[in-house]
Design a protein that fits this description.
single chain, alpha/beta, Aminopeptidase, Alpha-Beta Plaits, 3 domains, 5-stranded mixed beta sheet, 16 helices, globular
């Protein structure tokens, strides 16, 4: 596959020649990388036994406090106090692929991921599999869906180009994870505890895919984890409830929430001693153009990442079959996509600084014109800052039962108080209704003409 991809890129103008398939034996650096990481692990363990004053000082300077794991690893790989400061936000395209009985490659997961080691914030933006990549929606065909690009050409650069066209991001890197690798990773870390949202019952003999899961919190091994993230609808046609996100929207939401659980549970201390096994899984099942020397600089700080700082979203748009052949495709909204990308990848820090500033002045009103929208017309965003993942869905349910339209959710740092931010000068009665539905919250005026929601609710620890 590597040689085929290489030949295709050499014959295509403007294509990058950076693909590294870590599975193939043709990569001379794989064994060296594995040995290097095993050496790093041994160094870390030895360093834990060192009590020298010079080392303690260096760990303090690189990690922020003495003897934390981040500082230990950073010191072991040769970082100093300036290394992290010079690291930019890391962004990449993540693809999850599987193979059907006929050998066709299916792209089940398409996401843009980012991580900022200095702010310890990360983002996952899901791209629907049916996203249309052509120029004329009236003539849309299944061939032009984004999930068919990789299966046609086996060149991840083509998918990367399509995602960059859609999002306006200048992504350089991609990471492709095969289903087999995903299963083995979950097994390698001892399984993942996850709350399956609904009963799942689906069979597809063409893919040898059989999904049979019961709702509720449970330990998922690799096989069950694959069933979870690939589920879209049941054999009888039913799917996730509308308020959760029907069909593909529901699947993308489940994928993002499961990834959060995997990150959280992979970061357990006992899994440090499974690093060799995890690297073996990656060697066999990951295709990437990320240079090892790039990613190794981020790892010392990623071990300290808290999933409460992960913000997730889905590409805005709508599914439609209003074209000449009646093919269902997802047409992204260009204006809303641009605003969402700006918010997620560029303005996030500034937005949170503004939120903190507004917290000290709840009387900041920037407009005298009060919106006359009804409850059902108002777009509400709910950001979970409670530190407990189940509180987010509880709040969404409460608001929707009260008649409000929750269009976006996410997570942020743990905060003490619930804040209801009035972005579009919504009337007091409607805002009081949100406060009553949640039994918590302080209303603040934070008008923003560029905001794609009318109200942002940041849940704090006072929300029960």
């Amino acid at each position: 596959m590597k040689e085929n991809n290489k030949n295709k890129r050499e014959n295509s103008k403007g294509k990058s020649n950076k693909t590294t398939n870590v599975k193939t034996k043709q990569n001379p650096n794989v064994k060296k990388k594995k040995k290097k990481w095993k050496k790093v692990l041994l160094i870390i363990l030895l360093l834990l036994l060192i009590a020298g004053g010079v080392f303690a000082y260096r760990v303090y300077k690189t990690g922020g406090n003495s003897w934390n794991l981040s500082g230990l690893i950073a010191t072991a790989v040769g970082h100093d106090e300036n290394t992290k400061k010079n690291l930019e936000e890391f962004k990449c395209l993540v693809l999850g692929i599987s193979t059907d009985e006929e050998g066709a490659l299916l792209t089940d997961t398409i996401m843009v991921a980012s991580y900022n080691p200095n702010t310890q914030k990360a983002t996952l933006l899901s791209i629907p599999r049916d996203t249309y990549t052509g120029k004329n929606p009236a003539k849309a065909t299944a061939y032009q869906k984004i999930n068919s690009i990789y299966s046609r050409n086996k060149d991840p650069q083509d998918v990367l180009d399509a995602v960059n066209d859609i999002t306006g991001l200048n992504l350089e890197y991609y990471v492709i994870v095969k289903t087999e690798g995903f299963i083995k990773l979950v097994d390698a870390i001892g399984g993942v505890t996850f709350n399956v949202p609904i009963d799942m019952d689906y069979d597809d003999t063409s893919q040898d895919l059989h999904i049979h899961l019961k709702a509720g919190e449970q330990m998922l091994d690799g096989d069950k984890a694959e069933q979870l993230v690939r589920f879209r609808h049941n054999n009888d046609g039913t799917s996730y409830p509308e308020e959760y996100g029907d069909n593909d929207l529901g699947r993308m939401r489940t994928q993002r929430e499961f990834i959060m659980a995997v990150i959280k549970q992979t970061a357990r201390v006992e899994n440090i001693f499974k690093l060799g096994e995890i690297l073996d899984v990656a060697e066999q099942n990951v295709i990437t153009n990320v240079d090892f020397n790039v990613i190794k600089d981020y790892i010392p700080y990623a071990v300290e990442f808290n999933t409460a700082n992960l913000l997730t979203a889905t590409l805005p748009g709508e599914s439609t079959n209003k074209n000449e052949v009646g093919t269902w495709v997802f047409i992204h909204d260009e204006e809303e996509t641009a605003a969402l990308v700006q918010e997620l990848f560029y303005d996030r820090d500034k937005t949170e600084e503004t939120t903190e500033e507004n917290s000290s002045n709840t009387s900041n009103t920037t407009s005298s014109t009060v919106s006359t929208k009804s409850k059902s017309e108002i777009k509400v965003e709910v950001i979970n800052g409670t530190g407990t993942s189940s509180n987010l869905q509880q709040a969404v349910n409460a608001l929707e039962e009260a008649g409000y339209n929750v269009t976006r959710t996410g997570s942020t740092n743990t905060t003490s108080k619930t804040i209801i931010m009035n972005k579009k000068n919504i009337g007091d009665a409607v805002l009081e209704g949100i406060e009553q539905a949640l039994s918590a919250g302080t209303v603040e005026n934070s008008e923003s003409s560029s905001s794609k929601v009318d109200v942002t609710v940041i849940l704090g620890r006072d929300y029960n």
